[in-house]
Specification:
Serine Threonine Protein Phosphatase 5, Tetratricopeptide repeat, mainly alpha, globular, 2 domains, about 250 residues, about 80% helix
Length: about 250
């Protein structure tokens, strides 16, 4: 082969490899949803690229399935989410995010008893996972097991990072069910201090403010929640149950 032709072939191959690497890096950036600009749809697209490429080690395939599971769950596609989290757990049984994601999807389908073993399995991997503790507490609450729910919520609050308001939101919801609006207000204020852009927590505070006779601020919270996540109202009902909104 003439030297010039060899050089051109080498350059073409180099460009092709560079493009493939760029595509892979971009797919992972979307799959990891590394910024607020990455939509859930883009996350699903990125994870699907990674999964379909067949280029990743088994543990990375599990991460891609787990991330797509959580994106599907957030979009309300719970059956698809469970299938993806099933795949992630098969590839990597130690993927606690996949276990929690599957628990959330089952929870939102009303399968609270089935969600609890998923949260428990995640806690066997990481006993201080505040999300697993708080979500198991909520599932226990939906089943009427208020004692275990309260115990898990207290453990979740003790384990939570400074930027995790979900355990306080769960305790606030429990207080709302007891009609203890003062305690609920304290916890939801703390939850939003930690996570001011969490649509579900904003929606919970909207319901609490409506119950306390403050419709203007209730509407402001509801509007802000829907601007972040259009499914905020339904999501709160899926997670905590219609009794939260009724009481």
């Amino acid at each position: 082969m003439p030297r010039a032709a060899f050089v051109m072939l080498f350059l073409a191959l180099a460009v092709s490899v560079a493009r493939a690497q760029t595509s892979r890096d971009e797919a992972w950036r979307w799959c990891a949803r590394d910024s607020a600009a990455v939509t859930l749809t883009a996350q699903v697209t990125g994870c699907s690229w990674v999964i379909d490429s067949g280029q990743e080690a088994q543990v990375n395939q599990a991460i891609a399935f787990s991330n797509r599971c959580n994106a599907m769950q957030a979009r309300g596609e719970h059956t698809s989410a469970i299938a993806d989290c099933d795949a992630a757990v098969r590839l990597d049984p130690s993927n606690e995010l996949a276990l929690i994601g599957r628990g959330l999807a089952r929870h939102d389908l009303g399968e609270w008893a089935a969600a609890i073993p998923d949260y428990t399995a995640a806690l066997a991997i990481n006993p201080r996972n505040a999300y697993a503790l708080a979500n198991r507490a909520i599932a226990q609450l939906r089943l009427g097991h208020t004692g275990p729910a309260q115990s898990d919520i207290n453990a979740a609050i003790a384990a939570a990072a400074e930027d995790n308001g979900w355990p306080h939101a769960a305790r606030g919801a429990l207080a709302m069910l007891r009609d203890d609006v003062v305690a609920a207000g304290r916890d939801l204020t703390e939850a939003l201090r930690r996570e001011p852009q969490n649509a579900n927590i904003l929606q919970l505070r909207s319901l609490l403010r409506a119950r306390r006779g403050d419709p203007a601020r209730a509407q402001a919270d509801a509007t802000a929640a829907r601007a972040i996540n259009a499914r905020a109202v339904q999501s709160v009902v899926d997670i905590f149950g219609p009794a939260i909104a009724r009481r």
